[in-house]
Amino acid sequence: MLSQILLGLCLLGVSLAAPLVETRQTTTKKCVNPPVRKSWHTLSTAERQAYIDAELCLMSKPGTLGLRGARSKFDEFQAVHVSQADIAHFVGQFFPFHRLYVWAHEEALRKECGYTGAQPYWDETVDAGAFSKSILFSETPGFGGNGVRNGSLVCIQTGPFASYKNPIGPGYKLADHCIGRWISDMASSGASKATVNTCLAKTNYLDFWACVESATGPHGAGHGGVGADMTNPVSSPGDPIFYLHHTWLDRIWAKWQAQNPEVRLKEIGGNNKPAAAGFPFPGGGGAVGGLPPGFDPGMFFPPFDPRDLIRPDDVPEPLVMGDVGTNVTLTHKLQMYGTVPDQTVEEVMDIQGDVLCYDYD
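Above: the chain sequence. Below: its structure as tokens.
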């Protein structure tokens, strides 16, 4: 019965509805000397090690915000994602929320741990269809390798995060557990350059968003390709590789915006709540495409209890704030629970505006 529930959740699709798009004339003050985010593949050994050391530092620092389940500063960011999970996926604010969220994590690396670099991204087009061979899964300096199956666990055994005990997840559950991975080369194929170019060719935000967050698009490919913890739509930031994946997605959005900045730095839209109850798994939902031929849920999702995706009573329902109605607007409020100040969508549309200040290579 449980496997049937899991399969049903995996096959659940969500329509990216509400074809309303808001644009607004805005004037932003450009930032000065923005740090440049670069691909992990192009970083020097020293630069890679500096990033890993900063993440380990964040994991060692006690949390101070009183967020549910969080012991460390690293955990606090995972707790933010858990708290907002209901309204952070398959909604029009998907890109703005994760843009601010990744930036908040980057700011913590600097302020808490003295990191002087920029947040790197994982250029998944380099490894599409062959995640298992990616240099990101090197033992050092990297994120460690694939998980090793032991019953229902697929704990990573190598690399700097192999001994980390995560107190949050899977899903909404609170229980100490290892970082799990179950890499799937087939699932990662949606990160191909051809797929990214298809998304970049879309002429409006709604179509672009649907392409990237689709079942076989770049978002699903990264989560499904890494597998295990990364496939959990609630607690996926428990794997540090999450931040490189979503920085890459942010880069794709920034590139799409840069094709027509006068329009696209002000263009947002879509439903502000998921169009169907419950979660589709990353790589298993969305309006564009479908599931890959030969889809095997067991290959993408080593066993976890789908009941852990049901929000418990001690996690308040996240509120949609700033919109009038069911569509995302520029005044939609993005909530960060004290990690950084909350912002509106409008305030994070430009990566070199009044709030954000960074660039991509």
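The mean pLDDT is 87.
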